[in-house]
Specification:
The structure is a homodimer. By secondary structure, chain A is of the alpha/beta class. Chain A has two domains: 143 residues, Aspartate Aminotransferase, domain 1; 232 residues, Type I PLP-dependent aspartate aminotransferase-like (Major domain) (Aspartate Aminotransferase, domain 2), CATH 3.40.640.10. Chain A contains 13 helices and twelve strands. Chain A is globular. In chain A, 56% of the residues are buried. Chains A and B meet through helix 1, helix 3, helix 5, helix 6 and helix 9 of A and helix 1, helix 3, helix 5, helix 6 and helix 9 of B.
Chain lengths: 385, 385
């Protein structure tokens, strides 16, 4: 049988094959240092576990409204006020099964078949697959060190077409950990409003920024849709809870979609998330963040010393996007070689797009400092031994 | 701004407006008996709560593989062997965020834009919205009491077109609670195979059949995709876990989609589900089922006495689809009237399609027997008092 083009067009993550090989090697007794994994290695913080346990004990784990627990929507609105001094109404917030659910609602609501969405290359690979899944078209824009690997207002102006409905940006970005300056962000928000389109702003790494305090795009204007998640800063990946903030005019349609396509985000995750904003939990998260920062500071200088070129200093998330030209002309083979020879698993550039991926690899510092040190020692030995 | 036709075409559930009004009345102190709700009122059984608590205590709630916990896939394969004497390999099972996630994977994998999907009217309203969400076309086929409100082989033969890729059937069905005979089911599976299409069989109410033991469609042939859920028989709605069973040839593509569109089903739900197959849990579920059966037996005869016509005896699920012509020519207004006047909430036929919906309402017996008795007393008073 011929497969639908939708399924032919959606690419699997190349890192999955590498991960499968890593698991094989581990089954053979090899020690693999995982630096390919895009999720925090920290456990769910204790205050969240305590809160959710007391809910679970009651056994009343029924559906919530499709838009989420009202108290959680309120807590998120309050979070915007407290952390960003930004007024967002609870009615503008929808709780989703992870940021994935939020992106599905956003695109499903604003994009018709054949409409075009702009995004940076390199970028998070699921974004273009979501667009294809919903029969839209992605126009990727090659970005480089000059714009900190981010889309710029100038590029939006140049690339926006009649059938463009949205641009997806991410700050901090995956895979580069770079930020968009607030002036640029607000200018882009103004631009999409003038065009009658949308700016989808992925802020899932927002809490993990190491020197700066970021401002949010939420509520900038009614053409901005912000996506966030409890999986990164809040260290709650497996629970599957995220959220979006959108203009009131979009919320009814998103609610309608949510009722149909996922009914509601998981109830245990929503109660967990409700506890995530408590002061004692934020304390734990700030400790996690400090540890991420130590890892980044260490790994950044160690990779430079080894000869990797970090073209733009990552300022957030838990990734370092490194130019590996000094060692290879084929980053994919390079990643496989490192896995086979020294048991270090990293992600090849080609998972993030077609913009010179053969020159780049992504290191995730989602493993402990001692393990990162071990990885660096192995790399040193292998590359310079 | 003009809305995309996708979002214009997807209808909200009419019952949501009714539910909102019910909440308003409750806030004013009115007592509302909820018979519009499609989820079990029972708590998550204690054996499941105990198992998940011990997992949560460890805090290790990270992502599982996109296809689900390997042990859970094994447990489900074992369940097919044990309950149905049907051989299904663990590799054919994918764990999904509810049956919704399963339907998304199934349609996303087999349906191209513009392809047609057949389904019964009346039927579960989300099905056609899923098809529209993914830019397919639904051909609804009016069904009636003659075929127990189910699609028949004859109808598939008559209605299958060149661009038809699948039929979605449900046994037991929502809203009618009726079954498809096994001979008919296997004949339909043969038919879609001959056509090179797919039969998507919704078995989410499978455990809740009151006189018969059903046989499963899982594994009938490689053109059958079975969808199931932990939300109904297993009484675990809010956790959001379901599964599908498909031919090995489809699994890689479904895995690829799952990686992109939801990453993985919620981890707590998957551990909960793993405990759901334990003997002591099945004992609890069989008690729940007995209670559902008592409610059905009571409500069925009470509604008949009141003058509702139940054209086909429901044999499963927790719904009674009742002809209300004796009382009204407008079931939508009738449902609103019952809510306003006697505080009984039921679902009007128009949420299930366009096949004479004005003559039907759906009663869900997802509330206790004493509450059902109260509802019947109020109905008697109102309709005959």
């Amino acid at each position: 049988m011929k497969k639908p083009s939708r399924i032919e067009d959606i690419q699997p993550f190349h890192v999955m094959a590498l991960l499968a090989r890593a698991r094989e090697l581990e089954a053979q007794g090899r020690d693999i240092i995982h630096m390919e994994i895009g999720e925090p290695d920290f456990p769910t913080p204790q205050p969240v576990l305590d809160a959710v346990s007391s809910i679970i004990d009651k056994g009343d784990i029924h559906y919530t409204p499709a838009t989420g627990l009202p108290a959680l929507r309120e807590a998120i609105a309050h979070f915007y006020l407290q952390r960003y001094q930004r007024l967002v109404k609870a009615e503008q917030v929808i709780i989703t099964p992870g940021a994935s659910g939020a992106l599905m609602l956003a695109l499903g609501t604003i994009m018709a078949e054949g409409d075009e969405v702009l995004m940076a290359d390199p970028g998070y690979p699921c974004n273009r697959n979501f667009v294809r899944f919903l029969s839209g078209k992605t126009r990727t824009i090659a970005v480089n060190a000059e714009s900190a690997y981010q889309l710029s207002l100038e590029q939006l102006e140049q690339q926006w077409r009649d059938n463009t409905v949205a641009a997806i940006i991410a700050t901090p970005s995956n895979p580069t950990g770079t930020l968009i300056e607030y002036d640029e962000l607000t200018a882009m928000a103004d631009f999409v409003r003038a065009k009658g389109g949308y700016l989808i702003v992925d802020e899932i790494y927002h809490g993990l920024v190491y020197e700066n305090e970021l401002e949010t795009a939420a509520g900038l204007n009614e053409h901005v849709i912000v996506i966030n998640s409890f999986s990164k800063y809040f260290s709650m990946t497996g629970w599957r809870a995220g959220w979006l903030v959108a203009a009131p005019a979009l919320i009814n349609d998103m609610d309608k979609l949510a009722q149909n396509i996922f009914l509601a985000a998981p109830t245990p995750a929503q109660y967990a998330a409700l506890a995530a904003f408590k002061a004692e939990n934020i304390e734990v998260l700030e400790q996690y963040k400090k540890e991420f920062q130590q890892r980044r500071d260490y790994l950044l200088s160690a990779l430079k010393e080894l000869g990797f070129v970090i073209e733009v200093e990552p300022r957030g998330a838990f990734y370092i996007y490194a130019n590996c030209e000094k060692f290879t002309g084929d980053s994919d083979q390079f990643a496989l070689d490192l896995l086979e020879n020294i048991g270090v698993a990293i992600t090849p550039g080609k998972d993030f797009g077609r913009n010179r991926p053969e020159k780049y690899v992504r290191f995730a510092y989602t493993t402990s400092l001692p393990r990162l040190q071990q990885a660096v020692a192995r790399l040193k030995d292998y590359l310079h031994g």
